[in-house]
Sequence to fold (444 residues):
Amino acid sequence: MKKRLFKIYYFCFALIFIVFSFPIVSFAEVTDRVDEIPDYYKNNFIAISTPEEFNDVRKDLDGNYYLANDIIFTDEMFALGGEFYNNGAGFNPIGEDFSGVFDGMNYSIVGLLSNSRNAGVFKCVSGKVTRLNIVNYSCSIITASNNCVIGGIASSVIGPGSISYCNTSGQIELINSNGCVGGIVGEQEFGSVITKCFSSIDIICQNESGDMAQGSSVFGGISGMCSGKIDNCGYIGNISKNKIAEGGSIPIQYDNIGGIAGSTFDSISYCYFAGTITYPGDSYGTAGYVSATLYRCFSINSVMFNNKTHNGTCDTYSLTESQMKNPLSYIDWDFINVWEINNNISFPTIRKCEQSEMGFSGGNGSKDTPYLITSKYQLLNMSGQADVYFNLCNDIEFDETDTKAGGVLYELNFYCECLDDNDFKGIFDGCGYSIKGINYIEKG
Fold:
């Protein structure tokens, strides 16, 4: 009996020792792992697993990449003598024009610092960035500048570029400076799409000396200057700008500050703002300046738009905090496929995208090992493929939500000729399965 008690005691002691011997990892550094890398990625994408490999993405801006794990940037890397010191500017944003594909695989890049006037993880995106988490991002501009364009993912995104399923946190600070700043991008041009993204980045602008740079502030929780489409996005950070100091010369009415976008000239739909805006002038829950369509957008205790500059169509709502935590408040929102919410406890969050929107479920495209298609996105990825073999592995059915904002056909600008003879020159075997419910969208 004594031996048995001794063995039990020894086992418990050993277990406690093992558990407490491992380092404690903060939540910001932990990401839900992707169980398996698709064969398509193994054959056509480059794996990124270190800060140095990530920095090298700039060497091939047309390439396709995926994160193989979380990437942690340390303070030492940005200190004097560190590999990313760059004369105090920190990480140099990737590329004048990143036209490839970057899939974060739901992993995180943690602690990145970039003090450039055109700051972001990427400088400009015309390709696709998806499933990437940016944690504890930092940018600080301390010299007067009137042309800052800064975002948590990219300085700018241009058509036909897209950013999807990305999340950002951290802080962007401007001292005596102005420009376009957003939690996801600073500036978004026509033809681009930001969808299913979330940000809690704090945006802070201060005029400390009265020497504020000439220009205006265009700040938004998702996009600063928005000329593209934004749908199914949320912002819960804080945006603040202090008064013009004595001797300053910038009237506050030049600024456009909104919870989702500073200014918008296209469309914002199915978005919400539940942060704070601190500003001596007017500020607005969805967008500061509206010359577009706002649809099914919600803000916490806010005015929805500026009547003096409203030239678009608005379908927007102001809710209390308790209403913002109730899914029944969000008219026509998709809480099955896009959003999730802990009823009456938290604000909505974007559902994690577990399956890649790029590539295929298997195969290498050869006659003996065709690419395997199991989803809507993979079906549309056949466009432009030549002399490649495909097998359909199950039925695929489209519905009316696919042509609405946030839907697969809407996001990919899927037109009648998308899979016609001019684009598709591969070999497709339906294997007896069906494709149902496609509604074509006429171009223009």
Q: What stands out?
A: The chain has a mean pLDDT of 81.
